[in-house]
Every structure is written in structure tokens, then in C-alpha cells.
Amino acid sequence: MRPEQWETFKRAARLEKLDSVPMAMIVDSPWIPGYLGIKHMDYYLDPELWFQSNLKINKEFPDVTMVPSWWMEYGMAAEPSILGAKIKFWDDNTPSEYHTLYRLEDIDEFPEYECDKDAFAALTLHRYSMALPRIKAEGEIVPFVTARGPMCTAGFVRSTTHLMMEIVEKPEATHRLLDLCTRVVIDWLKAQHKVLGDQVGGIFILDDIVGFVNEEHYLEFCHPYLKRICDAFPDDWVKLYHNDAEVQACLDHLPDAGFNVLNWGKQTDIREVKERVGNRMCLMGNVNPLEVAVRGTPDEVREATLDVLEGGFSDGRGLVLSVGGGTSPGMPRENMQAMIDALAEFNARLAAR
Length: 353
Hints:
Blueprint (H helix, E strand, L loop, with lengths): L2 H11 L10 E3 L5 H5 L3 H6 L1 H14 L4 E3 L10 H5 L3 E5 L2 E6 L20 H19 L6 E5 L1 H9 L1 H10 L1 H26 L5 E5 L8 H7 L1 H9 L6 E6 L10 H4 L3 E4 L5 H8 L4 E6 L10 H15 L6 E5 L9 H20 L1
Parallel strand pairs: 1-2, 5-6, 6-7, 7-8, 8-9, 9-10
Antiparallel strand pairs: 3-4
């Protein structure tokens, strides 16, 4: 991400009026290796290949803001690995996680964690420190620190199925697990900030598991922990929340948690989201990422993109074009370009008004 792209994103997040709608895409290892025809293991373990891959993406799509920018990640491995989850790696896919907290009561026996020394978190921080001078030399910045949310992390450590059952059956112990995961998330974000330095001005939290619970359970088991994370960082930072599962139960409450940008899934039309929280959050969405962005024709992508823009745009405030979630594996160049071209068409109409 270039500094001027970050300034535009910040203005959108603050609901300032813009002359044109910007475009931002969440890009990481589910999409980049397949798009470039390389192995996931090589992407994760070859620092030069990782650097050149991200540089190529940035140069190929210079008008798209890549979020969170030069994402140093091992799929979703970092946060759960801090707490001892088992991680498996694959040649042609992102890592998978297997829970190692077999009994919820054992949470009280977990050893102390150290984000700068534990598992893939430690490796990620070291790789950031190695790559940062080269990233800066390209005139780029990494303004976001990024983490999976407490529910997502807890689901990896305990298993999502057990977590869902124990919210009902063992609420007190579940709160202890979520409290631990929240502390891990905050410390992990702060550890990244320490390495990346003053260029950081935002947090990016991804937690799809929030979408698995009803509103009552969201307010008890999700909202307080998400708010703790937001409250742990400066008020003027951009706070971006991603959840491409169902957002009906949490949607009205997310601004009160402290988030000011929402990236959500295909399930809820942008018009409804605009009506419910559009005056309190910037909307980053929500072209269907799979059936349209991956499997659709360029004409279908253009039509869907214009529909999102027309549904989400009102007075030039609070809209960033994106897909409804991360950039999905298999999204072809022609469909990315179709989104870019449709946005240019829409912005030209705005300029002509």
C-alpha cells in the first residue's frame, strides 16, 4: 500500500466526503500463490519469492489498495499456534489447524505465552523485520497490524464445534478461554506494531466465527472482547472488522465495539447494511467473492460491481469497493480488471454530475 492510498482509506474510514470511490482488496495466501502459479509452501518459506510475489501484485494492480498491505502470514496459523494448536502445511493450500485443548478445563493449566517467541508468531515478526527495509525502499508502507479475533482463535484452539456447544453448556469456562484469546490478540497486535513502527495506524480483525452465534450470545461472548481489542488502541486508528459469515446478529453493534470499517460477506445486501450502519461505519464490500468474482464472466462482475456501487453510494462518504470477504482462490485477472473498469465507469459518472 502506498502512503497516498492509506490516506484515502483513512478518509473513507472517517466518513469524509471523497470525490471518487476507492477500491481495496484483502489479499493473502489463499489467493496469491494460485494466482501466480506457485506453491503455498514456497510462498511461506522462501522470503525472496514472498517479496517478489507481493511486489508483482502491487505493480499489476496499482489502482487497488491491497489490505492489509504486504501481509506476512502463515494462513491462520499464527494466533492459534501461540496457544499450542497443531498446524499442518500443504503444497497447494493454506495451513490447517487442529485443536489441542481437549478439555476446556485444561485452559487453567496453559503455560504463559510470549508472542515474540512462540511458534509462527515469532517467525512472522522476524520475517517482518527482515522485509521491512525493502518494503520501504519500494515506497510502500504496512499501516495495519492484523489478527484473527477471539472467537476464531478460540475455535482453532478448542475446535469450533466444542466452542459452540460450550457457550451454552459451560459459559464460565468459555469466558476464561475467550479472555485468554483476547489477551493473545491484543499482545499479538502490539508485537507487530513494535516491529513495524510508526507507519502503523490501524488494526484489522478477522473473526468469521462471530457469525455462528445469535444476538444474545454475540452480546455476551463476542462484543465485550471485540470492544476490549478496539479500546486497547488509539481512538484515531482505523479499526477494520472482517466477517464474511452471517452478520445479522452483530451488525448493529459493531460500531459500538469501536470498529469504523466493515468488510462482510455476500449474505446481506449492501443496501440493508447501508441503512443499518452506513452512517456509523465505512462499508468495504461486497461483490460476491465466489459465484461472481471467481466463477462469473467479466460482464457479470461488471454488473455486480455497479450494483454494489449504486446500492452503497449516497453522498460520497463511507464506501470502499471490495469483494464480500477476502479475494477468493481462483479469482482471475480478467475479473479483477472488470471490477476496476466498472469502478472507473462509476467514478466517471460521479465526476460528470
